[in-house]
Amino acid sequence: ESPHVELRLANKIFLADGVEVKPEYQQLAEDIFGSSVEKVDFSKTDDAVETINSWCAQQTNSKIKNVVSS
């Protein structure tokens, strides 16, 4: 009997505050990659790191917690 294996994919675009994304691009990212866009204030490094790492942890059931660092 084979062990249970689960493969999950997650995509998200973290975009710097003040950078605009064309609606067509955002729609393509959603339709093709299942990706959403979230604005992040990268000038607040610790907050940006927390935002990205928290999202990653949520998507991986806390198996990946620190994908970026300051």
UniProtKB/TrEMBL annotation:
GO MF: serine-type endopeptidase inhibitor activity
Signal sequence extent: none
One GO term describing the cellular component: extracellular space
Swiss-Prot/TrEMBL keywords: Protease inhibitor, Serine protease inhibitor
Domain of life the protein comes from: Eukaryota
InterPro entries named in the record: Serpin_dom, Serpin_fam, Serpin_sf, Serpin_sf_1
Ranges for domain Serpin: 3-69
Annotated family: Belongs to the serpin family.
Identification of the protein by name: Serpin domain-containing protein
Lineage: Eukaryota, Metazoa, Ecdysozoa, Arthropoda, Hexapoda
